[in-house]
Amino acid sequence: MLSYKLLFFLPLLSTIITYPSGIFFGERFAQVISSGLISLSAVLSWYFFINFYSSGTAEVIIPVLDWLLISGQFFNWGIAVNSLTLIMLTLVLTVSALVHIYSIEYMAHDKSKTRFMTYLSLFTFCMVALVVSDNLIQLFFGWEGVGLASYLLIGFWHHKKSANLAAMKAFLVNRVADFGFLIGIATLYIFLDTLSINEIVQNREYLPLFHINFFGFSIDTLTFACFFLFIGAMGKSAQFGFHTWLPDAMEGPTPVSALIHAATMVTAGVFLTVRFSELMVMSDFVMTFILIIGLLTAFFAASVGFFQKDIKKVIAYSTCSQLGFMFVACGLGAFNIAIFHLITHGYFKALLFLSSGSVIHGVHDEQDMDKMGNLFSKMKITAIMMWIGTLAIIGFPYSSGYFSKDLILSSSFNLDQLGSLVYIILAIVSAMTAFYSFRLIFKVFHGEYKGDYDYNKVHESGIVMLTPLILLSIGAIFAGYFFNNLLSGYGSKEFWNGIIYLANEKHSYSSIFTILSKSFVAIGVALAVYYYGFNLQKLESLKSQFKSIYQFVLNKWYFDELYNKVFVNPIYDLGKFLWNKIDQGFIDRFLPNGSASVVSSIAKACKRFQSGFIFDYTFIIITGFTLFITIIFYISVS
Amino acid sequence: MSFPILSLLILTPLIGALTLSLSNSAQLKNKTIFASGLWITTGEFLLSLLLPIFYDKSQNGYQFTEFHTWFDKFDINYYLGVDGVSIPLILLTTFLVPICLLCSWNSIQNRVKEFVIYFLLLESFIIGVFVSIDIVIFYVFFEAVLIPMFLIIGIWGGENRLYATFKFFLYTLAGSVLMLLAIIYIISITNTGNIEVISKFVFDENIQLILFLCFFASFAVKVPMFPFHTWLPDAHVQAPTSGSVILAGVLLKLGAYGFMRLSIPFFEFASYYFQPLIFSLSCIAIVYTSIVALRQTDMKKMIAYSSVAHMGFVTIGIFTLTQDGMNGAYFQMISHGIVSAALFLIVGVVYERHHTRMIADYSGVTNIMPRYSFFFMVFMLSSVGLPGTSGFVGEFLVIMSTISVNVYLTIFTAVGVILGASYMLLLYKNVNFGNVKADIKKLTDLTNIEIFYFTCLAFLTVLLGVYPKLLFDMIDASISIGIL
User: For residue A565, what pLDDT band results from cuts at 50, 70 and 90?
Assistant: First the structure.
């Protein structure tokens, strides 16, 4: 089965040889070779996907190398091929290949092009390792590996202080969540004695039998493990509370944002949740938790996306919000729909990011939307692409977002109670999505140009950048239509083949609800058009009327400030205290220095007895002798 | 009588040192002395490679044993042997010593002959510790290690070296005295110095507690565990680069090795009895030193504090008294030996060029020294415990084993892991990224020698991270014997 291994080794090969080939054969060669290798694996992934689907096998596992030893067991580097991993691979490799190609032009003026391509390939390799893993250790390897690649790429322009800080923030926030993940892994291992994902899923019914005492609560191991796995997922997928790193991550070059922070890496959390769907559904607590976190994130991120000025930050918050949608689907038990939305979102969000990259490129690295406007006439293709992406994200009929988003809304009726509440929140968030997406379109492409950069120099990007956009737009339009039956419709049972949990038949969901949700979206669009297209002044007066809410939203609900106050600063101060007061002030003072000074003061005291003067010695002799006699006397008497 | 390879390993550097000391230093150039030292230690390294090659993994117990009667009356003998636990540490030692000499090639200019002699002595003594299966021999070597180390820091150290050396000596000696008393007592009761035999002897429970604490005093200082750690930052900061490398790379492992080899097999009851004490001290060490490391302005001090934190993982792992925990702790020891040594070398590289260890004096180094920052990145990530590097494997196994022992322990290690990432990333960012300072521009990138040894170290780090089976194959059986 060498052929499946190719998917694993081609990106690895690209990671290894890109940098050296850049040194020996020039930058252009390195760019071409890495793009070529990744494109090849992308094509292969589609080939395997189609082949595998027609073969009807449930899962193939291919060991690659012995890895870690735990209590006499070795764990393999391995490849698990099933419908879930393959469909993820097609998305990851396709977007990655397009981003590789796009970067050739986008990074044309950068000094370290080969380094950039190496990091991109490294990311791709780690992501593939994550997706195809058949055990939790390798999954964790990929998990941390994509985190590393993300860290390297966010801080790619390392002369920028903000980029460095953002990179660190991303790494550390993820680190916190990753530890949750690690605890989840360890729990599963200790109670099931295996790390193989298949065996864990097979033996899942033993998990609720054990209990863990955690801060006085007795929690069954299933809930414990699932909860901590989900904490890991929250970090990577930037869910509420762990989201702070994602907007800052926009400091990285735009192709990176498209690949890592929109289409692939951030969806790893969703992937993990779905991979363990059979476990997750067994715990009501965890499912409810996922649902609530998903709803919170979807709403929170959409609200913050309202008034961001930076074009990339708007899209970043929109990504965050859409990830919330996917988790809502997970929390509702509709894991297949979560994956469906993951796929469609991957295409249209990558399209949106790459288009915004094209805009930024065209206006000479300006990202502030207040300094754009009326770019439509200057970059028509980019604008059309952006329009397509926007229509897909708001769920315009028969675009890809239409299918997947509608299914998430409809699955809210899986819930026995409160389903309609979930539905209404989702519908409102959809309206908000429509509002900020169209706000972006209007601010960037229509109205008046307000930038500092000479309008006449604004230019459309070249063919190398536009081709990936056009290819992605095909995905953004047709992915929903193409995958609809396969992932969620009539073909879904055969397709998933028992790999993930599939909810039972849908509850009654009439088309009236689709129309209702679409009318919410229409209101969102209409408001955006009304305010940003025609009545900007009215908006300003509204802003000043609701100043506190506006400030609250603009400042991202003050999360960064809160975290700095609660975590960062106290630890920093504590460090100073412990070092100065405990290490040097206490331990050193009493242990080494203390014992040394005791010795030296005793020595000083003893020195007095040896003054060298005869009368001192006489005095000591007489005193000593008297004492001696006295003691003898007392002892003999008693 | 088979080939006495272990004696040869001890004697080769010793004879080398003797020959060098008898030679007339006035006639020898510094480079010649270095080169001869390098030849000897490289030969030693190749010799030590025979151990894993001829070690029979299917057999339990000590191999390559050598036995010569010494004090017949007390059954104290010159008894050497190795098992899976000692071989990797011997290799680590013989691997790091040539690197120590290589990295001092330019930086040590005065008293070169003495410098090389002390390093050879040090190597010989350290190997002696790892190969002895007699408790008296063990003690002799264990203490002897201090002397060359003391001299290396005291003669070639920084401005404040005297304070550091005395602190170092005071701490370690205080512990050793107690251990000596315990050893004398043990021999008087068991009438033997043979570690294997003593391991089978069951001491009275109350006696065990006292004896354990005596050994603990010595080993805890070496590891070092909180609150006996304050000698380490000072010793590191004042030591020359090579001194720091051997100190962090091997000397700290002597304490943990002592726990594994002596404390736990000898005092089973006491090991369980003192589990909570060790856990709490280790947890404090991990969290406390990580927080302190966050505020350091001196690169070496930061890495020294990080060493304390990492060794906290080792002691936790050992005292979970489970196979996973011990395996993990041992792996962490080896990994830390490679990675912290490499990090001190990393600091040494810029110190040699720029003559300052202050983090604030550096900025944007990656633009001037791209190769340097690449290697720095590899070791930084391994120190942080990224999967795929050696740092991950040990940490992972230790954390895994803590869950079965105590969940709170896991939480503390978690905090340590997160803080560990914070200070290492901060260090890396401040040194390598940002705008290039004017006086950084004159720095030159790594020389070929530096690239050579960094490549070796980086290769090992990644190899052990990707294929840890290499090490586990060696240690697994031996550790399972050591477990009670």
Answer: confident
- Asked if A109 has any chain B CB less than 8 Å from its own CB, the reply is no
Cα separation, B251 vs B262, in Å, equals: 17
Residues A471 and A121: their CA atoms lie apart, in Å, by: 20
Conformational region of residue B64, where left means phi above 0, alpha means psi within -120 to 50, and beta covers everything else: left
Q: Kindly identify which residue of chain A lies nearest to residue B166, measuring between CA atoms.
A: A592
The yes-or-no verdict on residue B1 having pLDDT over 50 is: no
User: Other C-beta atoms within 10 Å of A530: how many?
Assistant: 12
Q: Is A510 helix (H, G, I), strand (E, B) or coil?
A: coil
Contacts B288 to A, Cβ<8 Å? 578, 582
Rounded to whole angstroms, the Cα distance separating A243 from A560 reads 10
* The one-letter amino acid at A7: L
Cis status, amide bond into B98, omega within 30 of 0: no
Which tokens in the block code for residue B229?
A: 């750690």
What pTM was estimated for this model as a whole?
0.89
Whole-number pLDDT of residue B482:
57
Tell me how far apart the alpha carbons of residues B127 and B286 are, in angstroms, rounded to a whole number.
29
**Residue of A15, A74, A115, A164 best to disrupt the B interface, most CBs of B under 10 A:** A164
CA distance A218 to chain B (A): 12
> Which of A477, A353, A433 has its CA nearest to residue A102?
A353
The pLDDT score that the predictor gives to residue B331 is 93
Residue type, A258: A
List the single range of A262-266, A452-456, B355-359, B461-465 with lowest mean pLDDT.
A452-456
pLDDT class of B98 with cuts at 50, 70, 90: very high
- Cα separation of A472 and B313, whole Å? 48
- Render pLDDT for A356-379 as a digit per residue (tens, 0 to 9): 999 988 888 888 888 888 888 888
What is the average per-residue pLDDT within B273-293? 90
Residue B160, phi then psi, degrees to nearest 5? -105, 35
- The answer, for A608 touching chain B at a CB cutoff of 8 Å, is no
B83 to chain A, minimum CA–CA distance in Å?
Answer: 18
In this structure, of A171-180, A186-195, A589-598, B361-370, the range with the lowest mean pLDDT score is: A589-598
Contact B469 A190 (CB under 8 A): no
Would the CB atoms of B400 and A190 count as touching at under 8 Å? yes
For residues A517 and B85, the model is more confident at B85
Interface test with B, best of A8, A23, A68 (most B CBs within 10 A): A68
Classify residue B320 by its DSSP letter.
Answer: T
Shortest Cα–Cα distance, B368 to chain A (Å): 12
CB interface of A with B, residues 171-190, below 8 Å: 171-172, 175-176, 179, 182-183, 185-187, 189-190
Interval A98-129: pLDDT, tens? 999 999 988 888 888 888 999 999 999 999 99
Q: List, as one string, the DSSP characters of B377-445.
A: HHHHHHHHT-TTSHHHHHHHHHHHHHHHH-HHHHHHHHHHHHHHHHHHHHHHHHHHSSSPPGGGTT---
Q: Which residue has the higher pLDDT, A531 or A298?
A: A298
Q: Which residues pair with A81 in a beta bridge?
A: A60
Q: Cβ–Cβ contacts within 10 Å for residue B11, how many?
A: 14
d(CA B371, CA B53): 34
Q: What is the 3-state secondary structure (H, E, C) of A248-311?
A: HHHHCCHHHHHHHHHHCHHHHHHHHHHHCHHHHCCCHHHHHHHHHHHHHHHHHHHHHHCCCCEH
- Residue B462 contacts A, CB cutoff 8 Å: no
Task: Tell how far CA A18 is from the center of its chain.
Answer: 26
Q: Helix, strand, coil % (nearest 5) of chain B? A: 75, 5, 20
